[in-house]
Amino acid sequence: MTLFVALILHIYQPPIQTPTILKQITRESYHPLIDLHLQKESAKITLNINGSLLELMEFYQDEKFLTGLKKLVERKQFDLLGSSCYHAILPLIPKEEILRQIDLNEKVHRKIIGDALYQPQGFWLPEMAYEYRVITPLVEKNYSWTILSSVACTNGELPDNYIPEVEDNFATFFRNDLLSNLISFSQPTVEEFYSELKGLKNPENEDYYVILALDGETFGHHVKGLIEDFLEPLYNKIETDQHVQLVTISQLQTIFTEKKKISPLPSSWSTSAEDLLQGVPFPLWADPTNRIHHLQKTIMNHTLFLIGLAQKNYNNKGNPTVEIKGRYQNARKWLDQGLHSCQLWWASGKPWYSSEMILKGLNQLILSASEALKVILWNNQDSQDKDNALRIFDEIFEAQKEMFLIV
Fold this sequence. Notes:
The chain is an alpha/beta fold. It folds into two domains: 3-277, 7-stranded beta/alpha barrel (Alpha-Beta Barrel), CATH 3.20.110.20; 291-406, Four Helix Bundle (Hemerythrin (Met), subunit A). The chain is built from 15 helices and eleven strands. A six-stranded mixed sheet has the order 4-5-6-8-7-11. Strands 1, 2, 3, 9 and 10 form a five-stranded parallel sheet that branches. Strand 1 (3-11), helix 1 and strand 2 (45-49) form a beta-alpha-beta unit. The longest helix is centred in the C-terminal third of the chain and has 26 residues, at 291-316.
C-alpha cells in the first residue's frame, strides 16, 4: 500500500516585472529547481508556469531555463498545467475574458514549449481564486481538474482516497494548506515534515494521497537554502521509502477510481475562515473595505466596457486604417496584460504595499482605455456609443485622479 505525494509548484512573474528582479529570482529559484530535477529523475511535480513568465524568459533568451523545462516535460517529470496567461483573478472578470486568457496562455505555451509537449489536463486558477462560474469555461476548454485551497472544502476532512468532483468528470482537488504552509513559513526539518506528511494513517495498510502546492519562488528566493536543505533531502527520503511515491496530480485520477460530488466555497489560498464568515472570498484582490481595490475594479470594468464597444465598432467597420488597426491591437494587448493580479495584491497592504506596482498596472489599463476610445470614435455614426464611451472614459479619468492622490 502507498502514500501518494503530489507536489504542485506555481511560478509566475507579472508582465511589468523589472529585469533586475526577474534575474534575481531566476538565479535563486528557477535555475536551481531546473538543475535539481534534471539530476533527480525520480522526482515528479505538477508545474504551472503562466504565459507571462514564459514570454519574459523567451524575451531575455534564458536558454538554460527553457531547454531544461522542455527536457523535464519530455521526460514526464513535469506535468504542465493550463492557466490564465497574465494571472488574472478569474472570478473578477467576464467569461469571455477568461476564455481569452486561457487561449493566450495555450498559444504562448505551444509556441515556446511545442504542441507535442504541451498537453495539459489540469488547470491552475491564479491564487486558487475559485467560484463556481469559472468551471464552465474550463470544461469548455477540455480541462478535467483544478486545485483549490483547503478552506474551500466543505466535506469536513480533506479528500485523500477518492476524487472530489464539482461536475461530472471535472475534479476539484484540494491542497493540504497546513502542510504546504508548514514548508513555506516554518521551515521544518525533513524528519519533522515527513512525520507530519504521513499523518495518522499508515501507508503500509492503505492507499491515500496528500497534495502540496506552493509558489515555486518559495524555494531559494523567498526561503534561502530550501532547495538543498529541504527539497532535495525530501526527495531522497521518499525515494528510499517503498510505501511513499511521488506522482503528478493527473496520475491520481488513474490511481483512485471512487468519485464523490463536492460543492467548494468561493475562496483563494489566501482566504481565511474569518474572511469567509465576513463574505469576503478574495480579500487580497477584492476587499470591499479597500478604497484602492474599489477604484482599481472600477477602472478595470470600465476598460472592459470600452474594449467591448471598440470591438463592436472595429468588427462592424470594413477596411480599418493601419493606424486604427494598430490602436485596437494595442488596446487589447494592454488590457490582456493589465488584468494581472499583482496591482490588486500590492494594494491590499496585507502585509505588503507598493505604489509603484499599483501605478504600473493602472498605466496599462489607462493606455488600453485610451486606445479603445479612439477606435470607438473612429468614423462612428452611433452618437449613443460615442456619448457612452466618452462618459465612461471620464469616469475612468476621475478614478485615476483619485488613485494618484491615494497611493
